[in-house]
Amino acid sequence: MKPAPFAYHRATSIEDAIAQLNDDETIARPLAGGQSLVPMLNLRLAPVQKLVDLGRIETLRRVDEQAGRIAYGALLPHAAFEDGRVPDGSNGLMSFIGGQIAYRAVRTRGTIGGALALADPAADWLTTVIALDGQVVLVGPRGRRSLAAADFVTGPYMTALDQAELLESVVIPRRAKTERWGHYKVTRKTGEYADSMAIALFDPDARKARIVVGAVNGAPIVLTKTALEIGEGANEERLQAAIGQELAESDRAFSPAKLKLHVTAALRAIRKAGLS
Ligand SMILES: Cc1cc2nc3c(=O)[nH]c(=O)nc-3n(C[C@H](O)[C@H](O)[C@H](O)COP(=O)(O)OP(=O)(O)OC[C@H]3O[C@@H](n4cnc5c(N)ncnc54)[C@H](O)[C@@H]3O)c2cc1C
Fold this sequence. Notes:
Layout: E1 7-10, H1 14-21, E2 28-31, H2 37-42, E3 50-53, E4 63-65, E5 69-73, H3 78-82, H4 93-98, H5 104-109, H6 112-118, H7 124-131, E6 135-140, E7 143-148, H8 149-152, E8 153-155, E9 158-159, E10 166-173, E11 180-186, E12 196-203, E13 208-214, E14 221-222, H9 224-231, H10 236-248, H11 256-272
Parallel strand pairs: 1-3, 2-3
Antiparallel strand pairs: 4-5, 5-10, 6-7, 6-10, 8-9, 11-12, 12-13, 13-14
This protein binds flavin-adenine dinucleotide.
Flavin-adenine dinucleotide is lined by residues 29-37, 54, 74, 101-102, 106, 109-111, 113-115, 117-118, 123-125, 161, 166-167, 192-193.
């Protein structure tokens, strides 16, 4: 299929893009890497009357390194993380994730900001940025605001982005050098979206853990009680029970098979982080 006709504007600055998007008469959408939006246009799944191309806005590719955190411009492609072209304060987790998404052609065009703004529940960056306790910076007609990534995603394909607001950058706190991470992704074929995915982080010095499960019909789930059990040195049997209970108590209705899949992914991520 071919897309329905649409107007096209190549934005020259963030302000220009916001002005173009801030139009009540027209359904306008920002275009980043186009890896999800263009297929949706072709299938006529995304009603769009005007595309506002962000590709020439160099400030959206900026990296701002500070002592305690790194801010990544929304337009940075997955390949920039994979290739180590941007600094990594996550002990290698972000660069590993950059190389996990789809295949190289998609990673060259697809962007971290586009993946988060789309909020596909199975998107790799969604689980990763929430696991790393990241924030997103949004900019729109009323100025800038920062949100925890966990609050930015409000449901499957739903975010806190207002009309004419852009995701400008993703801010990741530098993780402790002693922190270890484990990642497990269940997928039928390499390069496909996950059926389940989990990330476990553990800092043995602080005895602090963070466990996040993704591809769960909405925002990734942060397993806070399981993380406390890890800090207390729980064995694998106790952890398995804690993960199952926390997922079952969440607001998602998992079939028994899905629940088992997510519990297994979380346990394997925990094992990979060297925790059990
Ligand atoms: C074959 C294939 C396999 C894939 N496999 C995976 C996978 O395994 N894991 C995975 O995580 N992803 C996967 N993807 C998706 C890929 O990661 C895309 O990068 C991502 O979905 C969207 O990023 P994009 O930059 O292309 O955004 P676009 O397609 O340009 O935009 C996506 C949406 O976000 C909005 N948007 C984009 N940028 C901004 C911004 N800065 N501010 C506000 N709104 C914005 C757009 O308006 C649109 O609604 C796959 C894609 C393909 C085509």
